[in-house]
């Protein structure tokens, strides 16, 4: 068990008993969480998956755990992980509740960042215990994901009487629980998407542009730079802003836009949007001098007109 697990003498409400675990939706997340729960002493007993890829993933991550239909997962498990895409979650919960698959006292956990426990209302009416546990991590669908859960923050939302049990489950998976109020879930999820998902897009565009510029190993060039930038940003926030926009180098920014229009026109809109956001933050924090900002903002406005 993880060293940070509650001690054996903890109140039973704070430390879930050893549970049978089921997974509905064998995407990248569910099998990894179930494998982590198995390491904590819980017992995966059933998993469902639709595609051939998800079935192979389940067989790799949860060997010897039978693949069954969703209703059968609920019939076999005391703790059920609903790890389907956000848009599919409400319909899945409604369907399971309407068909009588949900049992009173069953722990029903979804991993959507967007939703709190409100989306589980149909199951709650059927007597289930609703938890929303969202790991703030990207997943590969491979065993390395289990290791990455160590120290991973989870956005936790649950009824107050289940809060300690929800947090204990996260700790047993090696994670760090972070309480998110029900109404704050969409904003919480938007923040994570803004940082993580858009970062991948920015890095991929940078790699492509460096290759176009003739750089033979763009990943090796970007790795130390981006690592340092991320570390500085996490440590210092806006004080870490550097580069031509933060300095007010309007001529350099103008040259950038011209080159992007020539070699990667699809990247122009993103460059301008991020440059404008960077200028606004640099101005607000006194890094960009107002007298330089005027020319810079003029270049960005001209860039929008093409």
From TrEMBL:
Ranges for domain DUF2520: 152-278
InterPro entries (UniProt xref): 6-PGluconate_DH-like_C_sf, DUF2520, NAD(P)-bd_dom_sf, OxRdtase/DH_put_Rossmann_dom, TM1727-like_C_sf
Start and end residues of each Putative oxidoreductase/dehydrogenase Rossmann-like domain: 9-135
Protein name: DUF2520 domain-containing protein
């Amino acid at each position: 068990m993880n060293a940070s697990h509650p001690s054996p003498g903890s109140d039973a409400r704070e430390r879930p008993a050893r549970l049978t675990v089921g997974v509905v939706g064998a995407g990248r997340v569910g099998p990894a969480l179930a494998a982590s729960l198995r390491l904590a002493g819980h017992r995966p007993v059933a998993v469902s998956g639709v595609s051939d890829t998800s079935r192979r993933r389940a067989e790799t991550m949860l060997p010897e755990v039978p693949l069954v239909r969703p209703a059968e997962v609920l019939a076999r498990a005391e703790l059920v992980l609903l790890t389907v895409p956000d848009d599919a979650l409400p319909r899945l919960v409604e369907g399971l509740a309407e068909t009588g698959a949900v049992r009173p006292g069953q722990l029903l956990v979804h991993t959507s960042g967007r939703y709190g426990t409100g989306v589980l209302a149909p199951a709650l009416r059927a007597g289930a215990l609703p938890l929303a546990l969202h790991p703030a991590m990207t997943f590969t669908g491979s065993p390395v994901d289990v290791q990455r859960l160590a120290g991973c923050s989870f956005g936790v939302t649950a009824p107050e009487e289940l809060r300690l049990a929800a947090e204990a489950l996260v700790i047993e998976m090696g994670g760090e629980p972070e309480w998110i109020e029900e109404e704050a879930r969409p904003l919480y999820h938007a923040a994570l998407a803004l940082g993580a998902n858009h970062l991948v897009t920015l890095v991929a565009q940078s790699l492509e542009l460096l290759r176009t510029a003739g750089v033979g190993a763009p990943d090796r060039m970007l790795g130390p730079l981006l690592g340092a930038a991320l570390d500085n940003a996490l440590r210092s926030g806006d004080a870490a802003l550097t580069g031509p926009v933060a300095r007010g180098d309007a001529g350099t920014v103008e040259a950038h836009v011209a080159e992007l229009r020539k070699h990667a026109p699809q990247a122009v809109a993103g460059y301008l949007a991020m440059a404008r956001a960077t200028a606004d933050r640099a101005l607000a924090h006194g890094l960009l001098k107002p007298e330089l900002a005027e020319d810079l903002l003029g270049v960005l406005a001209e860039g929008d007109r093409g």
